[in-house]
Amino acid sequence: MTNMFIRTRVLLATLLLASASACGKQPAAPASTADALPDIQAGVEAPADAATQPDERLPAQSQAPGAASTAAASAAIMDVYKSPTCRCCEKWIDHVHAQGFRTSVLHPADLDTTKDRLGVLPAYRSCHTAVTKEGYVFEGHVPAKFIHRFLAEKPEGAIGLAVPGMPAGSPGMEVGDTFMPYEVLLLKTDGSAARYAFVGSPADQAP
Q1: What confidence score (pLDDT) does residue 57 get?
Q2: Which domain range does residue 156 map to?
């Protein structure tokens, strides 16, 4: 039993290190879905010290099956706040570009302060935060298909979606064939969160 326990711990540590390597940073602490959490500040004011790098690439709609079916989502432009050294953030940006979005990339001096201003609580955080011109927030490696769905539905009382931590196998966090099932959370204006989608396999996050 002791040897089995040790092998299990080593396997888990290896998966976490592989995920961190893919993102070029230390892994964020995973968060559980809580029924009651502190109030989310719904403001979306951009920090004054953020350095902006507009990405002028057009949405690759011809490469995105299903993206053209939602005109509003296909035309969406998102500001993405990230560290300049985050490789998995760049891969996630490529993912959303392929699904019809355009982005402006910002590198704030203090990313945690930026997340505070955008209303993203520590329990929900990942390595990057995207914000639409309407003020909806998408935290972490949220698959583009769920961003499309959210923008089409615009759920009442919601500020956006989040994938806490950096699940291996999520968009931008590909590590070989490794895949860790994860939840996409619906962030509400009253400070609570609920499951928006469960991603149990790579097929569940495909366009």
Answers
A1: 42
A2: 2-205
